């Protein structure tokens, strides 16, 4: 784990990161981590309520966080394509994927 404070860790600043399972514990922690470091986050999950909670937590920790949540079933190709299209419309081509699968 890096000892650099999040506000000084520029590795992910401005990068677009797509995070699957963002409503769960692992995905939520990824959103918090990258949001604190200035990444643009597209959060994906099947559960809209959990996504909203994740989005609120991320923004609560960093008022400037850029996060968009989209409902997506990662086991359905059409759902994934729709989510990636939405992600690109919001923040451009993703630079990274954070996935628990």
- The residue fraction in helices comes out at 40-55%
Strand order of the largest sheet: 3-2-1-4
The major beta sheet can be summarized as: 4 strands, parallel
Shape: globular
Q: Number of helical runs?
A: 3
CATH topology description? Rossmann fold
- Kindly report the average pLDDT value: 94
Would you kindly provide a written description of the structure presented here, covering whatever features stand out?
With 101 residues, the protein is an alpha/beta fold. The protein has a single domain (10-98), classed as 3-Layer(aba) Sandwich (Rossmann fold), CATH 3.40.50. It has helices at residues 25-36, 48-61, 77-91; strands spanning 16-19, 40-45, 66-71, 96-98. A four-stranded parallel beta sheet has the order 3-2-1-4, sandwiched between helices. Helix 1 (25-36) links the parallel strand 1 and strand 2. The longest helix is centred in the C-terminal third of the chain and has 15 residues, at 77-91. The chain is globular, with a radius of gyration of 13 Å.
Annotate the secondary structure layout:
Blueprint lengths: L15 E4 L5 H12 L3 E6 L2 H14 L4 E6 L5 H15 L4 E3 L3
Parallel strand pairs: 1-2, 1-4, 2-3
Helix pairs in contact: 1-2
Name the features.
alpha/beta, Rossmann fold, 3 helices, globular, 101 residues
Task: Please sum up the structure shown.
By secondary structure, the chain is an alpha/beta fold.
């Amino acid at each position: 784990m890096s000892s650099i404070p999040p506000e000084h860790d520029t590795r992910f600043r401005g990068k677009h990161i797509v995070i699957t399972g963002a409503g769960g514990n692992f995905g939520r922690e990824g959103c918090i981590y990258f949001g604190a470091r200035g990444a643009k986050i597209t959060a994906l999950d099947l559960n809209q309520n959990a996504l909203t909670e994740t989005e609120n937590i991320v923004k609560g920790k960093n008022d400037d966080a850029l996060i968009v949540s989209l409902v997506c079933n990662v086991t359905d190709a059409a759902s994934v394509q729709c989510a990636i299209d939405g992600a690109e419309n919001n923040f451009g081509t993703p630079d990274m994927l954070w996935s628990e699968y």
